Amino acid sequence: QVQLVESGGGLVQPGGSLRLSCVSSIIDFSDYTMGWYRQAPGKERELVAFFPNGGSANYAESVKGRFTISRDNAKNTVYLQMNSLKPEDTAVYYCNADDLTGVYDYWGQGTQVTVSS
Which of 9, 44, 48, 74 lies in disulfide reach of 36, CB 3.0 to 4.6 Å? Predict the structure, then answer.
């Protein structure tokens, strides 16, 4: 069974930084587009950033210039470096792996990020 396991969430003050990690058990990890989503209380889940294999990183406008997504195919891991965090970044962050065929689409269990003074 495929697993995506996120880590790195926590409580941070405004202006601070966190680095999220997502380790996957997908055998053909490099074939997947990896993404990070988030869901704040009472809101819809939204795309934060995604990174197609062999492609370029893409970001939501709200995080451009502050967040960086990267992937290490040798480690089956995707990262989200979050800088200059704001209270509105508070949410549960989810890792996603999508093969873009409509067949395989996997989610992690989520990690809480809270930005508060």
Answer: 48
Q: Which residues pair with 100 in a beta bridge?
A: none
Note the pLDDT of residue 53: 83
DSSP-derived secondary structure for 62-78: TTTTTEEEEEEGGGTEE
In whole angstroms, give the CA distance from residue 97 to residue 54.
15
The band of 54, judged by pLDDT with boundaries at 50, 70 and 90, is: confident
Nearest to 35 by CA among 8, 66, 4, 1: 4
How far lies 75's CA from each of 5, 6, 9, 20, in Å? 13, 14, 20, 15
Phi-psi region for residue 107, left (φ > 0), alpha (ψ -120 to 50) or beta? beta
pLDDT above 70 as % of the chain: 100
Share above pLDDT 90 across residues of the chain, in percent, rounded to a whole number: 85
Please, what is the Cα angle at 61 between 58 and 63, to 5 degrees? 80
Residue with tokens 């067949």: 103
